Amino acid sequence: MPGPTPPLHSLRPLRRRHFNRLFAAVYASAILSLLYHHILKLLHSTTLASFFVSFLLFISDAVLAYMWSTTQAFRMNPVHRQVFPENLQKVLDRKDFPAIDIFICTADPYKEPPIDVVNTALSVMAYDYPTEKLSVYVSDDGGSELTMFAFMEAAKFGKQWLPFCRENNITDRCPDAFFTSNYAITANTMEIKAMYESMKMKVETALERGKVNEEYICSEEEHQLLTQFRTKDFTRQNHPSIIQVLLNSKQDVDSTGNAMPNLIYVSREKSKSAPHHFKAGALNALLRVSASMTNSSIVLTLDCDMYSNDPITAQRVLCYLPNRSNRPNCGYVQFPQRYHGLNNADIYACEHKRLFLANPIGMDGLNGPSYVGTGCFFRRRVFFGTPSSYIEPEIPELCPDHIVDKPINGREVLSLAHHVAGCNYENQTNWGSKMGFRYGSLVEDYYTGYRLQCEGWQSIFCNPSRPAFLGDVPISLSDVLNQNKRWSIGLLEVGFSKYSPSTFGIRAMGVLMAQSYAHYAFWAIWSFPIIVYALLPSLALLQGIPIFPKVYEPSFFLYAFLFLGAYGQDCVDFISTQGTFQRWWSDQRMWLIRANSSSAFGMIEYIMKSLGMPTHGFNVTSKVMDDELSKRYDQGIFEFGVPSPMFVTLATTSILNLIAFLGGFVLILKERSFGSFFIQMFIAGFGIMNSLPFYEGMVLRRDKGRMPTKTTLTSTLLVGLLYGIASFVLNI
Ligand SMILES: O=c1ccn([C@@H]2O[C@H](COP(=O)(O)OP(=O)(O)O[C@H]3O[C@H](CO)[C@@H](O)[C@H](O)[C@H]3O)[C@@H](O)[C@H]2O)c(=O)[nH]1
Ligand SMILES: [Mn+2]
C-alpha cells in the first residue's frame, strides 16, 4: 500500500505580523494627529509666508503618510516558505518532468559583454534536469554578430562543460563563477579551464575589434551564419530576423554521448518604422518563436546578467508548478534578484532588500509576489487570458497546449519562426495588450505581473537559502541613478494609466494587493516630501525662522515618535532579514539620494513623455567592469566622475545643509533659542551625516571618480540662488 505522499513544500506565517498590525494602529493614530495639527496651523497662519510653509509641510507629510499606508500591505501577513525538492522524485518520475523554455535577453554587446551572456546560458543549460527537455532561447536585441559568434563557441564548449559538471557534481555551473571559486585542481579541470579561457579570449578579441576574426571561423557553415549580419544596411535598429538553431537536442550530443539541450539564437526583425517595445517586445517574440519550435509548458525569463547559482532550481519549481501548490491559479514562481560582488556596505543599496526580499514575503502572504523581470518561471498558459477565460492566439501553432511534432531545424518550423519574429507581426493582435508581456511601461516586468494578478493569476515566492540566481549590480552612482530614473518613469506610467492600482487595481485585486502595487507605482512621489525636507528647514534656519514645534511642546513628541518609529521599524525589519546595520544605513541614505535626484528627474521625464516630448526609452544598464572603477567600488568609495544634472541637485542639498547647520549654530548661540530650532538643526545635521560621501567627492578626493568641479560650482551658485529666493519668499 502506498504511504502518504511526502510534502513538497510548507508555508508558515511569520510571528512578527502580530506586532506589525498593532504598531500600524498606533502609528496611524499618530499620523492622523500630525495631519490635524497641520490643518490647525494652516487655518491659523497669519502671514502669507507662514501659510506657504505650513502648506508645504502639510502636503509633504500627507505624501509620506500615503506612502506609509502603502507599505503596510507588506507587513500584514508575511510568510515563510520552504520546498523539499528531495521528495520530488517520489512523486514524479524524472522522465515525466515537463519541458522548460528558457529565455535570455541581451541588448547590446558593448554594455552586456557576450562572454557574460554565454556564462548565463551555460549555467542554465547545465541544470540538473533531463537535458533534452531544456531549450535555451537567446534574444539578441543588439542584432550583433559578436553575440552570435559567442554562442557558436558556447555551443561547442557546452559539449564539454555539461558532462564535466554532471560527472564531478559541480554546484557552480556558471563557468566564470566556477573558475573564480576555490575549485579542486585536477588534470580534468585544467583541461576544461584551458578550453574556457580559449573561448573567452576569442569572444573578447572579437569584441575589441568589433568584428569576428577570419581565423576564428572554422567552417563554411559558420561563415554563412555570420554573413547574415554583414548584409547592406544591416543595423541594430533595422534588420531582418535571424534565427539559428545552434544546438538541437534530437541530434547534438555532448562528449559522453548524452543529449544536449536546444540552444537557439534569435534576433527579431527590427525596422525603424515599427515600435519594438524594448524587452517586453523581445520576450513576446521569444514566446512565439519558442511556441513554434518547442512550446514547453513552463517558461523561465532571465536577464543576461543573472546566472544560475543552483542546478536544482528547476526541480524546486516543479514542487509548485504546474499545479502542485496550494494556490489554484498559480501562474508563476518568482525567485528573488540577488547579487554577487556587492561591497560590504552596499553603498548604493543595490541589494534592494525591500523590493526583492521583504516585500515579496509580504505579498506572498496575500496573493503572491510581483514579477521582477528575471528568475521567474511562468506557466505558458498565463500569457493567454485569465484563469477562467482563455484567449486564442491568431494562429493555432501558438496555443499553449499545441504539441510540436516537427523537427526544429526543418523548413516548416523555421519559416513559421521567422514569420512570428517579424516586426509587423503584432499589428492588430492582442500581443502586449491582452496577451503575452504587456506594453506601455518601461518596467514591463512590474506591469506584466500586475496585469496578470489583476486577471486573477496568483504567484509564489521561492527564496531558498542558496541564491537560485546571482546578478551584477551597477557600480557607479550615475548608472544606479539612471536605472532608478527608468524605473520611476515606468512605474508612474502604470500609476497614472487607466489600469492604475489605486483605481482599477483596487477593484480587480482587493485593497491590500492594490496597495502593494500602488507602493511601487507611486515610488517617485517620495521625492516631493524629501526635497521639501532637504531644503525648507535649512532655508528657514538661515533666515532665522522657526517652522517646527519647540522642544517639549506636545507636538514635538509627535514628530519624535513618528521619526523614530518609522526609522526604528525600518531598521529592525532590515536587519532581521539577514541585514547589517551598515547596509541599512546605506539603504536609507540611498532612499534620500534617489528621492533628491533620480525619482525627481524621473517625474519630470514622465511629464515630458506624457506631453509627447521625446525621451530616452529603455537605457540598458552597463555591465562592463572597469578595473579602476571596480577597485574604488570595492573600497566603498562613491563614484561620481561624469557630470550629471542629477549630481547637481544632490550637491546642492548637501552644501545647503552644511551652511544652514553652521549658520544655525551661530544663531542659537546668539539668540539662546535652542528649543525653537532644534528640529531644523536636527534635519540639517541628519542631511550632513548622509552627505559625507558628497563632501569627500567635492573637496577631499583627487581621483577620477571625484565630483566634477563644474558640478560643485553650479551647485554652489544654486545654493546662493535658493538663499536669495528664500530671503524674499519667507519674509513676505
Ligand atoms: O530593448 C531592450 C532593452 C533591454 N533588454 C534586456 O532587458 C534586461 C534588463 O535590462 P537592464 O539594463 O539590465 O535593466 P535593469 O534595470 O538592471 O533591470 C531591471 O529592470 C528592468 C525593467 O526596467 C527589468 O526588465 C529587469 O528584469 C530588472 O532586472 C537585459 O537583459 C537587457 O538585455 C532587451 O532585451 N531589450
Ligand atoms: Mn540588470
Key phrases:
732 residues; alpha/beta; Spore Coat Polysaccharide Biosynthesis Protein SpsA, Chain A; 2 domains; two-stranded antiparallel sheet; 24 helices; binds uridine-5'-diphosphate-glucose; binds manganese (II) ion; Cellulose_synth; membrane; Cellulose synthase-like protein G3; cell wall biogenesis/degradation
Oligomer: single chain
Helical content stands at 40-55%
Low-confidence stretches: none
- First-to-last CA distance: 89 Å
Biggest sheet strand order reads 5-6-4-3-7-10-9-11
CATH topology title of the largest domain: Spore Coat Polysaccharide Biosynthesis Protein SpsA, Chain A
| Secondary structural class | alpha/beta
Tally of separate domains = 2
Structure commentary:
The structure is a single chain. α4 links the parallel β3 and β4 (134-140). Helix content is 52%, strand content 8%. With 732 residues, the chain is α/β, with parallel strands linked by helices. The protein is globular, with a radius of gyration of 28 Å. It contains 24 helices and 12 strands. The longest helix has 29 residues, at 48-76. The chain folds into 2 domains: 86-473, Spore Coat Polysaccharide Biosynthesis Protein SpsA, Chain A, CATH 3.90.550; 526-729, no CATH class. The strands form 3 sheets. The chain has an 8-stranded mixed sheet with strand order 5-6-4-3-7-10-9-11, with helices on both faces. Strands 1-2 form a two-stranded antiparallel sheet. It is a multi-pass membrane protein. The active site is at residues 141, 445. The chain crosses the membrane at residues 21-40, 46-68, 517-536, 556-575, 647-668, 674-692, 713-730.
